[in-house]
Amino acid sequence: MDLRINETLQTGAVRNRTYQVRSESVYLFLEFTIVLVCEIVGVYIMLLWDLYREERNRQRQEREAALQQARSRTEEANNRAEEAEKRIKLWEAWNARRVEAERQNAKFDEPPPSESDK
């Protein structure tokens, strides 16, 4: 009887160790799987962040280019307006001299300003 109890205790201990080894391997597998999944998720998050950052930089560059074009168009329009204002002033001055000459009944032979007069 002593032998049977001892044998039963030994087989139980062996079975417990087997379960313990299996549970340790399951835990090790779970730990490895969790680490691997976290690594994959981290890589995808970094890739998404890089894509987001590149898109944001591209949009910023497009906005800066559009702003630069708008500034150059505004500058061109301002230059054209200044030139038109100068031509208008030349015509107004010429017209004022012509009207003054007519009022004084004087001969006015001055030609009107041309496009080359700026």
Describe the overall structure.
With 118 residues, this protein is mainly α. The chain has one helix at 2-103.
SSE order and pairing:
Layout: H1 2-103
Quick recap:
By secondary structure, the protein is mostly helical.
Major beta sheet, specifics? Answer: none
For the termini, the CA-CA separation is 127 Å
* Helix vs. strand class: mainly alpha
Can you give the helix content as a percent range? over 70%
Question: Would you identify the regions where 5 or more consecutive residues have pLDDT less than 50?
Answer: none
Q: Helix count, per DSSP?
A: 1
From the spread of the alpha carbons, the general shape counts as rod-shaped
The total of beta strands comes to 0
Instruction: List the helices and strands in order.
Output: H
In what range is the share of β-strand residues?
under 5%
Gyration radius (Cα, Å) is 47 Å
Mean pLDDT, all residues: 85
Protein traits:
86% helix; single chain; 0% strand; 118 residues; mainly alpha; rod-shaped
